[in-house]
Each structure stands twice: as structure tokens, then as C-alpha cells.
Amino acid sequence: MEENKNRTSLEIELKEDVAAGVYANMSVLSHSHSEFVMDFISLLPGMTKAQVRSRVIMAPEHAKRLLAALQDNIKRYEAFFGEIENEQSAPVLPNAGKTITHGDA
User: Fold this and answer.
1) Most CB atoms closer than 10 Å: which of 38, 64, 68, 74?
2) What is the tally of structural domains in the chain?
């Protein structure tokens, strides 16, 4: 609790080119001892080559906070809109530490 008392306000700048976002319907996740790497990928229907649209690298502690934030947001989303159907499980790639998650592609 004491950590929260020491927090100050934070101004976050969102530049126009970043605000537009990028579309991704797949992601590849990998990690080392010191970082998690998340590649967000766009795979268009009928195409055999996917393109990495964005890469985010973060410390394990931040990745765990992101997981908690996603879980909380999904819980609130489903409470309002209903359960999200998840027809596909995330296959594990042969390389240890890498997971690929598919979207609608």
C-alpha cells in the first residue's frame, strides 16, 4: 500500500501515428530470463506470409502486470457483452519459450 502513496500523476502522450493503432490477428510470444517479447502479426485470408506489425518487449514483472490487466478487462468485458468464444487453443511452437496465438485468420 505504501507504494501507492508515493505515486505521482503521469502525463501520457499519444502521438497521432501511434493512436491509429495497427491490426493484428495473431501474436507470437517468447521470453528469456530478462524479457518477454510479443510480436503482433497480421495474416490476411488466403495469404501464406504473415507480417509482424508491431513488437513489444518488456520485463517479466511488467508482463505479469499486463496479464493481470488483460484478465481484469476480459472479465469486465464478458460481464457486459457475454462470454468471448475461444475456438482455438494456442499451439506451442517447437522452439522452447515461444507460443503462437491465432486470431480470426
Assistant:
1) 38
2) 1
